[in-house]
Amino acid sequence: MKKESSRVGFVIADALWLAGFVGIWTLLIAYWNTWWVLVLVPMFTLMLAGIGELLHQTAHYNLFGRVRLWNDVIGWIAAAMVGIDLKTYRPFHLKHHRAVNTGDDPERAIYSFPEYAEKAEGWKTLSNWNKAKMVFGIASRFSHALVSVLGANAPLVRIMRVTIPSFIVLTGFFEGLFFLIPAKMIVAWYMPLFLVSFVDLLLTQSRHYGTELKAEARRVPLPEQYEISWNLKLPLIIELMILRRNLHAEHHEYPATHWSIARDKQAGRTLPLAAYLQAWWANGPRVM
């Protein structure tokens, strides 16, 4: 594993990211009915995608100086916000590392879409409109499968499902919005939550895009994990907002590396964003 030299630096980086997340969300809640939403909704959507990586890092105990208590506390809250149970996710993800892209890989349960398999075979013959409809369906199916497999009914998940909308309703009540409260809830929470399902789909599809799925169940060594994984080249600001969630090949090679010092070696395992989107749209998404 890659050695880490400055735990204090990692704690500061984690704290700054969390402060950014809370700050952007606060601004969205405060300015939800202004033109600022055109900037704040996309920004908060990306930060929500970063919550997925925050959860991922806590599953490896990489955050907050590797203090297990803080990793668990932040991980439980982050997971519950997006409808996932950390207790379910941690062994699920660690098993993915051991058996990536094999018949024993648990991620196949949430990143496969057998009901779209027949349509995907004829993907190149579909019109752009039919492709868009299919992507919409896959994104919805992906989000449903994600929360279903990873503990959507855990107690903290149910609590968070009520607490977040209730908080937004409360702010709207004190602002005297009353009849506009449902609109505020949509803009400040449900819209970003809906949009992040598409961001999540694109990010997760890129991780092992175009690599062959092996039927046999076996343990996959680290060098092979790297060779069947991809990094997705993104602008630096987006990388930071999503906690470098796009560097999946690097993560498979060095799972214990803190997000703030993860770097893309560009050793032939990097997909430029435009090239990836073009290939994804031309050849179709992974459905198995």
Question: What can you see in these coordinates?
Answer:
The chain is mainly α. It has one domain. Helices cover 63% and strands 2% of the residues. It is built from 13 helices and two strands. The chain has a two-stranded parallel sheet. Helix 7 (128-149) packs across helix 9. The chain is globular. The two termini are 31 Å apart.
In a few lines, what is going on in this structure?
The chain has 288 residues and is mainly alpha-helical. Helix content is 63%, strand content 2%.
Series of secondary-structure elements, N-terminal to C-terminal: HHHHHHHHHHEHHEH
> Approximately what portion of the residues adopt beta-strand conformation?
under 5%
Rg on CA atoms, Å: 19 Å
Q: Strand pairing plus helix content: what structural class?
A: mainly alpha
Distance between the termini: 31 Å
Task: Please tell me what the overall shape is.
Answer: globular
Q: The biggest beta sheet, please?
A: 2 strands, parallel
Number of helices: 13
Q: What is the spatial order of strands in the main beta sheet?
A: 1-2
Number of strands: 2
How many separate domains?
A: 1
